Hints:
The chain has 423 residues and is an alpha+beta fold. It has helices spanning 10-19, 51-60, 71-75, 78-84, 98-101, 103-113, 126-134, 159-170, 239-259, 293-296, 304-313, 391-402, 419-422, and strands at residues 2-7, 27-32, 42-43, 65-68, 89-90, 120-123, 140-144, 153-156, 182-186, 191-199, 204-206, 211-212, 215-217, 221-224, 229-232, 266-275, 278-285, 328-335, 359-363, 366-368, 374-376, 380-388. It is 28% helix and 26% strand. Glycine is lined by residues 212, 227, 285, 289-290, 292.
Amino acid sequence: MRVLVIGGGGREHALAWKLSQSPQVSDVFIAPGNPGTAEIGTNIPVPVEDIDRLVNTAEHHRIDLTVVGPEAPLAAGIVDRFQARGLTIAGPTQAASQIESSKVWAKAIMNRAGVPTARAERYDTFEAAADAALDMPLPIVIKASGLAAGKGVVIAQTHQDAVDSLRDMMVERSLGDAADEVLLEDYLVGLEVSIIGITDGTTILPLLPSCDYKRALDGDNGPNTGGMGAYCPVPSVDPELMVEITRTILQPTIDHLREQGIEYRGVLYAGMILTPDGPRVMEFNCRFGDPETQVILPLLESDLAELLYASATGTLADVDQPSWRNGAAVGVVLASGGYPGDYRKGMQIQGLADLSGDLLAFHAGTDKDSDGTLVTSGGRVVTITAVEDSFASARETVYRGISGVSFRDCQYRTDIAAREVLS
Ligand code: GLY
């Protein structure tokens, strides 16, 4: 199989890395990829937004399976375009990917499918939303309905904050069209867990649960980011709870969509809170999580290419449940100083090539300068992942490895997976 991975972050590096281990995969191409993916496959300098060129690339390189990393090309209809040209691609169609690109649509699906989720109301004017917010208990979750590059959710701690955020989104239009509609939601309390399943629209095979860390600083302080680390599995989501989550959340969602004429294929990612009353969905995403993928795939023993090809071709019922190595994976994101605010690029990265063999480095914001030196080129630079028999030893290994990697102003959290060791 010749495989094309679309995207250029740590998630796509992890996907390409795992796919390249499949005995069925002869060649891996990555568009656009990064210096890390260049070590395991062939990078093709086509941006993820350029769907015309991606289709042509897949035809030119006789690709048998395309795997899409980020949500934007899915929401733009890349799957529909590939399918129209007879190309096999793992991912939801534009209609199905509304599960992420329209929070209003997703909430309606959850409610109609009977999926447990936070109570929410939809508003399409600032005045109505602000009026309603003033009557809600604190904190208030405000969600822009559309895609907003991780900036679409605000947890307002005061009514004034809620009104200010709504004005910012709906009057000042800080998120553009994304906040033409908003949801005001009840705040859920509990551990946040990512549950990711691979589906062909009828069968869904859940992967191991994982937790990510969205805040920039230790102790869940500081601003929200694209993700500063993750770990897998999650001990409080035991096999019985995974069965319950699959039965009450993942399966009813794809069944309901199928009944509505939407065959959801690819990856369904439920971001959920384990409340005292049981798991509740916070949001759905239509793709693998980042950085969750960088800790889930190192534990996967099954053939990812087989799973994703079956999801794309509607044959997942013929595939065994994924199998896993025992142990724990801990991934820590090294970020540029100042991220998620302003940061400098072009800082020389040292020590990555000398990482010991028990560590994985998944590149994101890296680049090669004119003389081939590895430098920083983004906010999140690289995820370092360790897999060990326990969280304690995975944490020890990953932080020992990180101490040998450096670039100017490097920042990272020191508490990834600490709750699984200290508690
Ligand atoms: N880790 C959160 C996300 O991928 O959306």
